[in-house]
Each structure stands twice: as C-alpha cells, then as structure tokens.
Design goal:
GNAT family N-acetyltransferase, single chain, alpha+beta, Aminopeptidase, 3-stranded antiparallel β-sheet
Length: 109
Amino acid sequence: MRKLRFDDHNDLIGISDLRLGTNDFINTYAGQIGYSVRHSQRGKGYASEILRLTLTEAIQCGFSKILITCDEPNIASAKVIEKNGGIFEKTIPHPGFPDVKRYYVQLSK
C-alpha cells in the first residue's frame, strides 16, 4: 500500500510503502515498511512523521509487529526508526549492497 505525502501547499514531501505481502526478500532485506523523503525536505522531521503515519496504517491493517530495515551507512534512517520505537535486532550482509540493519517495532492497538 503506497502513500504519497504532501505538505499544506500540495508539494510532494515523500512516500511510504506498507508491504502487505511477504516473500524472502521482504522478510530478509526490505522489511515491511519503506519510506523516502525528497532531498530538499530532509532534516525537517518529515521522515519520522511519515513513518509514524505508516505505522498507524499498519495497525489498521492488523499488523502487531513490523520489520523495518535500513542500509547500515544510513544513520539518519536508523535514528528515524529508533525514534518510532524500532528495536535493533541485528545487522546482516546483503551481497553486492551495503549491509542491512534490521529493526522491529511492536505495535499496539
């Protein structure tokens, strides 16, 4: 379930993707939520808000626990995940790509 996120002036801020299906790639590397913020809008708290809104949507879809990942060098994304309740599980190798940090968020209704 992909959502575009806009500001009050209807300018695109970012995008989130709640992955309702599952496969080995999602379960290992991609996680159940992905998000991205336009370069010009980074550092303004939008990533945290986009992830917060997507976690709320995950609850509405019946999820009780969510896997969220980020590339190990992406410190900003790791902070966003942690700010939204992400508990670090482990870092895993991703052949040909940066290592992946895995986090779980326990959701409550």
